[in-house]
Every structure is written in C-alpha cells, then in structure tokens.
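Worked example

This section walks through a single chain of length 614. The input is the sequence exactly as stored; nothing has been trimmed or padded.
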Amino acid sequence: MCGIVGYIGKKEAYPILIKGLRRLEYRGYDSAGVALINEAGELNVYKTKGKVDNLTEYCNDKDVSGCIGIAHTRWATHGEPSSRNAHPHYSQSHNLAIIHNGIIENYADIKAKLIAKGVEFKSDTDTEVLVQLVEYIMVNKQLSLLEAVQVALFQVIGAYAIAIIDKRNPDQIIAARKQSPLVVGIGEDEFFLGSDASPIIEYTDQVVYLEDGNIALIRKGEELKVISILGEEQELKVKTVDIDLGQIEKGGYEHFMLKEIFEQPECLTNCMRGRINVEADHVTLSALIDYRRQLLNAKRIVIVACGTSWHAGLIGKQIIESLCRIPVEVEYASEFRYRNPVVTKDDVVIAISQSGETADTLAAVQLAKEKGAFIYGICNAIGSSIPRATSTGTYIHVGPEIGVASTKAFTGQVTVLTMFALALGEAKGTIDRDEYLKIVKGLSQIPSTIEEVLETNEKVKDLARTFTYAHNFLYLGRGFSYPVALEGALKLKEISYIHAEGYPAAEMKHGPIALIDSDMPVVVIATHNAMYEKVLSNIQEIKARQGRVIALVSKGDNTIAKIADEIIELPDVLECLEPLVATIPLQLLAYHVAVCKGKNVDQPRNLAKSVTVE
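Given that input, the structure is written out below as tokens.
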C-alpha cells in the first residue's frame, strides 16, 4: 500500500527512482510522482494520476536531471486519486518536497490552524499538511529541517513513513517512520530508500530497517545517522538482504500471479527445508526449542490475521486443535484490536501476515503484548515489523510475492501452521506416533503432489472460458475444505471482480440455496474424506435447482463425475493436508477467469499488497 523510493549519490536519480517505482507496483496504487533537485538547485516535482507509465510519459519533455530525488506511488486515503493529490507535495514556498505512506489522524486540526496562520493548501491530503507544518516550524522557530521534522512529528497522531528533501540543502534526505515500513540501503558513496527492499536489492544488499520513532539523516559523502524523535543517536543495525533479483521478475510468465502459483512446489520445499528431516519422520522448529516452556504451558491459542492469512488461520485452528488438544480462536485482527479482548499470560497469540507490516495485525500484536501474552509470528518478509515485535516465530520462506492476490504465501502459511501443530503435538504427547509419522511424510510429499495438480492448468483454463459470463459464484466445502472455499471465493473476487461467497456446505440450506439457479456456478470441494457423503448430498441439492457444479474430486471418483457439470481430479492426500492441494485449482480458476475478462491480474483495482493503514 503506497510505495516510497529515494536516492542520493553520484548517479542520475531519475532512472533509479522510476525503476524502483516499478518494483513497488505490486503494492497497489492509483497515482505516481517524483521530486528531483537539479544542479542549478531547482526542486522539480512531477506527478500524474494512473500508472508509472503515465508518469514517465508525462516526464518525457521535463528536466529530470539531478543526483538526489524521492518518488512515490499513492493508494488514495485522503482525497480522490488525482494529479493534485498525488505525491510528492511541495511546501508553500516550494523549498521542500515530501512523500508519505500512512495516515495522519489529526491532520484536520493541524490544517485548520495552519490555514488560520495564512498557509495555503493545494491538495486534499493529510500529507501536504505535514510538509506545510514542517516548513511553518522551520520559518517561525528558525530551526533546521531535521529539528523541524522532530518537532512536527511530536505534534502528529497516526502512522507514517516519510522522506523530505530541501532544495537549499541538496545533499540531504530526512526520512522517518512510525508503524509504516521504511528501509535505507547503503551503497558505495550512495544511499537508497524503499518501502521494502525490492527497489534496493539491484544496487546493494546492505540495509537498515528503521525502527518505530526513528529518523534517518541521509547525507551525501557522510555515514548514515539514525536518531530517535528525541534526538538520541541510535545504533546502526545493518542487515544483509538475501533476495535473488530473479525472484521479483516474471521469468517468462505472463503475470506474477501465474509465476507464483507455479512456484509453489519449490517454495514449499524451501519452507520445509531444515525443518523436516530427510527421512521425513521428524519436524524441528527452533521456536519450539527456544521457547518450549511457554508453548507447552499455553492454555489457549489465539490466531490474529486479515484476509488470506485469516483463512490460513482457520485451517491452522483445526489442525492445532486436532493434534495438540488446545483450544484455538481465530480473530480478524481489525476487530480484535478494538474490542478489549480477554487475553492472559497463559495465552499464545499467533500473528500471521505475508508482509509483516499489516497495520491491524501489528496493532493486535501490541495489544496482546500489553496483556502479557506470548506472541508467535508467522511472516514472509524478513526483518519486517511483525517479526521484530513478536516473541518468536517462523518465516515461511516462499520468496517475494509480487502479485497482489496471495497464492504461495497462503500455502506457505498453512505449511508452517501444520509443522507448528506437529512439533507442538509431539512435544505435548497429544499425537499418536503413527499418525505423526504419517502426517510428516505426507507433508514432505506435498511439493511433488502440487506439481501433479498444476498439470490441470490447461483444463482449468478451458473451464474458465465457460464461466467468464457469471456475475456470482458460490464456493462450498466442509471441515478442512471450508476455509479453502473462503479463499477460493476471495481470489475470484480480488482479481476478476466477480461477486463470490464461500460457505460451509452444510450452511447452504440456511440461506444461500435461494440464490441457486442455472446462472449460478457452484464450486464444491468434494474429495474423499469423512464428510464425502454429506457433500455429495449438497451437490444433489444444487443440481435439483439447476445449479452448475464445478467439483474438485479425488482421482477416480465416478459418482460425482456423473452428477457435476465439470470435475477437476486431485491426488489423494491426508484430510488435514487437503487445503494445500485443493487450493491450487481455485487459484488457477480465479487467474484464468480474470485473464479472460481482461483484468489487471497482478494489480487489481483498489487493492494493495501491504495494507499499512486501517
């Protein structure tokens, strides 16, 4: 959600900034802009509504020279998507320019006070309020830019990652963060800024992740300096980023989403590497070794997450309760943080987030910590905010996920939750040894099983053409497959803009059955498991009302094949592992329907990859 790029050094900044913005397009945005200081000391700001391509076209005949600059992709919060509201924003004098991710909650009060003092505004954004406030403080209190930023940030309430440049000091960028990620890359006589490491890794693997409340003073020809908002110098914690540049390229695929769907066998192998031994008879998680007492003594587990991660949590609930015999609750982080939940020191709170920056989930973590709970994080982005805020946790190690609609992160999260349940169940003695061995072995074979499922791609592609006409879809499943139905419906909604709902199959009779007719495709997960006969009855009820059934069935199933309009056969796996297999055709179905409808698969409208605001 929104993207920040910055550069200061000896090279021309504009090409670096534009390439960086392209690397951040996956985050979701509606406008883009760039600010540059040229050799004559002029501060030039160019911005447009729409994509980065619109910005580059607009800049074709503009002066884009300069070795210092900041750039931004905006996802609208305050003010409609427009060139006027796009970042960067000038201060009134045009001496300063700012870019900002996050939300300034008290911007209206500050804006009213500044207007009363004669400040004129050109946009509807909270961001312009911040740069006008900084300039007002500089002028009226005779402070440096750094000092004015410190004073201004004391006055604002909300979340931010900001970068500010001043044309009177063209060798300096001031950057700061609170509850919104910001990374400084350290090169040879040059520095880079990014919302995450993706715009930086082409140039350096040495980065500093700014902590909450910290300000970076980035000066050409000097060492990076980080201070607190109070002015206290902070120790530099330089990290090495291990990301292959090829991981954030399409690699010959038409879209990142398709590439990431097909990467899942390799990704899940990486996720399990070093955690499941080569004999596939034991699971080891370092968190279960280092924090054994806290996890074994847990009286309850609470999973907090949003969106796709919440669906993974629903699957985790079932497998943890089954193998560990601990009650598990799954909460939307956005609701959990606002309802004074009952959380005690005997609870383990598991926070799940692909980006590790999800604002609601991070706030839920902080609330649970205040109440004394032990916090376990499951994230993909190394060094992100949630892993740094939790007591311990497990990275899913599936590599950067660029497509906004999550695919490999979902299966990675489910894989980690399954390993967590196995390791904790074995430590507690709540799982039979034979069952433990059977699940561990089955889990280790999932990557090769998914490769087999991916062979259905062409069949699903043909199927998608048939159902592109639909305005509504229904997804049904039971047990472990119910959250998969929710996830399948979400994928279709996200990228094809077709309305879709997921339900437990048994709940169909309690309302959704009223919607079923010959124009309503119904996707049913109907593999051979404990509730096969009941799901079969649901399919018959759908067909009795002329509904069109797409059934995911176990290989060799002839019963449902005679009833359903279309079937997709899946290899047999253990019931608790079915979500990892059944979700693949649903990802492919959503993808191909969206492509058939001509939608922007990787950057669906109104959505953002990293949701860093409420």
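What to look for: The longest strand covers residues 169-178.
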